[in-house]
Amino acid sequence: WQEITDPQFTDIEYHVADGIAKITINRPEVHNAFRPETVRAMLHAFKTAHRDKSVGVIILTGAGGKAFCSGGDQRIRGEAGYTDEDGNEGLDVLELQRLIRTIPKPVVAMIAGWSIGGGHVLHLCCDLAIAAENARFGQTGPRVGSFDGGLGVALMTRLVGQRKAKEIWFLCRQYDAQQALDMGLVNTVVPLEKLEEETVQWCREMLALSPTALRLLKASFNADTDGAAGLQELAGNATGLFYQTAEGQEGRNAYLEKRDPDFTKFPRIP
Ligand code: 1HA
Hints:
With 270 residues, the chain is an alpha/beta fold. 45% of the residues lie in helices and 16% in strands. The protein contains ten helices and eleven strands. The protein has helices at 36-51, 93-102, 118-125, 141-144, 151-160, 162-171, 177-182, 195-207, 211-243, 246-256; strands spanning 2-3, 12-17, 20-25, 57-62, 67-69, 107-111, 114-116, 128-132, 136-138, 175-176, 188-190. The strands form two sheets. It has a seven-stranded mixed β-sheet with strand order 1-2-3-4-6-8-11, sandwiched between helices. Strands 5-7-9-10 form a four-stranded mixed β-sheet. The longest helix is centred in the last third of the chain and has 33 residues, at 211-243. 1-hydroxy-2-naphthoyl-CoA is lined by residues 30-31, 33, 70-75, 91, 93-94, 114, 116-118, 140-141, 144, 146, 148. Residues 30-31, 33, 70-75, 91, 93-94, 114, 116-118, 140-141, 144, 146, 148 line the site of 1-hydroxy-2-naphthoyl-CoA. Keywords: Lyase, Menaquinone biosynthesis. This is 1,4-dihydroxy-2-naphthoyl-CoA synthase.
């Protein structure tokens, strides 16, 4: 891995290697709980990976082997929300959830240890999830005075069904890696020492496939769950492909050349 440093990468690490970007939440002393600065850094890191044409797959993980992420840092929860070092309240974590889903590259959650609360919702937002045997999953919102009724409910329900999703949210129990696998919360479970090797192997398999096919598939899955916003994403991809055709370019050329467009040469494919 090559580490990329950036003054905006507060609380996280950003590495790249052979087409993979790895974003690591680096606050192991609090099981990688996030504060506003952490979320801002993750937004910047995901946008960096999005724009980097050499990156095809993104891994999201946590430092230390004992936690993926334990959600919002409860120590800095103020009267109305989470407070940054300048005293401003507000956590852009819902924006981060959306970004993970709309980036047109697969995002893989690599989970060792705790995936809890808002950290668990981040894992739900990732496209695939590889868990170590020590992984533990759960929501805590109703215990600590919070809840994520947005993607935290919608994606969980899609993944495990409404009965199980209600159990997870209503009882705030914890589930081990095997239980998570059995209910479809993760794709596979491996020994902790094999976690990164296995995750990289999954990434390499995706890197060998058509980036455009994967991009359109991700948008299609989102379209099924995200209503008009999902269709916007899928249609945006269709526009992007159309721009690359002679037919799309004829419209642009005609406009720039101040003439009528001639679309007669383009077949109306049945
Ligand atoms: O619900 C939302 C949102 C909803 C809508 C919109 C935005 C949202 C944004 C965020 C969230 C949330 O994330 S709410 C849920 C917040 N998270 C939690 O309630 C999890 C709290 N942590 C735990 O329950 C436990 O730490 C644990 C089950 C993950 C692990 O337990 P364990 O192994 O016994 O470790 P523990 O000793 O508790 O933790 C180690 C250290 O990490 C402790 O610090 P120490 O006492 O050694 O100084 C512990 O306090 C700290 N820590 C762990 N998680 C957090 C934390 N400190 C602050 N915030 C945490 N989340």
